[in-house]
Structures are given as C-alpha cells and as structure tokens.
Specification:
mainly beta, eight-stranded antiparallel β-sheet, four-stranded antiparallel β-sheet, 202 residues, single chain
C-alpha cells in the first residue's frame, strides 16, 4: 500500500494524537537521565554517589542538592572518588576557586585536598543551602582533568544571603578517571537534604 505524505497545513499540531507502533525521528534524544535521589532525614556524615552510578555510561554529570549542616559556621566540601571508590585526597589534588555575590574571591587555590563550594554555613532554622553542580569528563584518565562547576545559594550563619559561583578541577599531575563524588562538611554532619544525580546523555 502506498503511503501519503501529510502536509503541515493539513494537520493541526495543537491537537492530541494517539499513536500505535513505534514513532521515530521525534527529536534529539540528548538530555539529562535521572540516575538516583538520596534524601537525608536522619543525620549522616556525608552523601556519596559511587562508581555504580558514575562510570563509563556517561562522561558528564549534573547534581542538584539541598543541604542543612549540624554544625554552625562550617564549609561545604566536595571530593571526587577514584574508580575504586576511594576519595581523591592528596594535599594538592584540586585547584580552582569560588566568587561570592559581591564579586570577591572567597576561595582561591592551586593545590588543596578538597573543593570548598560554600563557607560560613549556619545550622539555625532558615540557614539551609541549595545548589547545582556539573562535573566531568570522568573517563579521560590522564588526558584531561575532571572539573566541577556550579553555584550555591543559601543563608550564612549570620542569617544573610550568600551566593557563590565555583569552578574547580583536578590539578596538574593528578589527572585520572573519576568514579564518584562525595559531599560533606569540614565540621559536623549532614542533618537534612535531597541530592539528585543525572547523567548527561552522550
């Protein structure tokens, strides 16, 4: 049976249509793929997504979070995991920095054992934080550095708004494939929060 080509002017695309069979060519499949959500309702020392989620399936990842610390005046810290799920923690493994809402550098390092993405966070009611971050490429080995970029918002331990843009990467000499990410505080624990990890479709 011959098929007729439907002209655009003969079809109202604002209508609802029911299709049977397989419809292809309906757009670019690239986008975000939700991998996991961790909700903290009981205090934990850290939140971690390991190599069961961060692996060769995707090169880049996107993570959203809300977070409340147990300690006052603490800093939010991020470290990558290697492909064996161990923290990458040598003293000079990370380089980068952060800029606060006033345009001043709040973090600036060419060699640290972690990535500080927020500081002076408070534990009182209303002093929680939230943010979004991207990290990758995770599968480049020694060819290119895995980087972490994003922004955070919240109230500091004085109850004032605090926003930051941050940008880090694995320092020269520490390039390696990454198998996960760990989030915790420099003091205290994670009292509450929701963390959702997405893979960026190739």
């Amino acid at each position: 049976m011959s098929l007729s080509k439907i002209q655009s002017e003969s079809m109202n695309l604002a209508d609802n249509f029911a299709f049977s069979g397989t419809v292809t060519g309906a757009g670019d499949p690239a986008g975000l793929v939700k991998l996991a959500t961790t909700t903290v309702s009981t205090t934990v020392p850290e939140v971690e997504f390991d190599n069961t989620l961060v692996n060769s399936t995707y090169d880049n990842y996107y993570l959203t979070y809300t977070i409340t610390p147990t300690a006052d005046n603490t800093s939010l810290r991020v470290r990558f995991l290697n492909t064996s799920n161990n923290q990458i923690t040598p003293g000079a493994a990370y380089s980068g920095g952060a800029i606060n809402e006033g345009g001043n550098a709040s973090t600036n390092t060419n060699g640290a054992d972690s990535m500080i993405i927020n500081a002076a966070m408070g534990s009182a009611a209303g002093e929680s934080g939230a943010g979004q971050l991207w990290f990758g490429p995770v599968n480049e080995g020694s060819n290119f550095p895995c980087q972490l970029n994003g922004f955070s918002n919240g109230a500091n331990n004085g109850g004032n708004h605090q926003g930051r843009v941050f940008f880090f990467y694995l320092s020269k000499g520490y390039f390696q494939s990454v198998g996960g990410i760990k989030i915790n505080f420099t003091s205290g624990s994670v009292e509450a929060g929701t963390f959702t990890l997405y893979g960026v479709a190739k």
